[in-house]
Amino acid sequence: MPVEPLSQKEIEDRLAELPGWSLDGDRLTRSYRLGSHFAATAMVVHIAQVQEELDHHSDLTLGYDTVSVSVHTHSAGGAVTEKDFRLARRVQDLAPVHGAH
User: Fold this and answer.
1) SS3 for 61?
2) pLDDT in tens, 42-72
3) 20 to 30 Å CA-CA from 79: which of 13, 36, 44, 55?
């Protein structure tokens, strides 16, 4: 079943429920600052596990103590869909509270 792009209003409404996440062009994005390189690397591994479970993958950037997530749905022409928000919520749930930035 094809995944439908969300309207701008639907995106804004869903973003209101995900502190720190934003729309950057056609992608949902968020960066997390963690306490160390090891903690950031561990978070990347956890995100990768969630992505495999959801069969939906983001672009991940690992910095020294940061992780940046950027996602949209290729099968919907690169638009933002509910699949992206499902992944963002799961990432938000596993992120340490102090990881906001």
Assistant:
1) strand
2) 999 999 999 999 999 999 999 999 999 999 9
3) 44
Tokens of 97: 């509270």
Cβ-defined contacts of 60-67 (< 8 Å, 24+): 64/37, 64/40, 65/33, 65/34, 65/35, 65/36, 65/37, 65/39, 65/40, 66/31, 66/32, 66/33, 66/34, 66/40, 66/101, 67/31, 67/32, 67/34, 67/40, 67/43, 67/99
Tokens standing for 94?
A: 């596993």
Q: Return the beta strands (E) in the chain as ranges.
A: 22-24, 27-33, 59-62, 66-71
Separation CA 101–CA 93 (nearest Å)? 15
Residue 97 has pLDDT above 90, yes or no: no
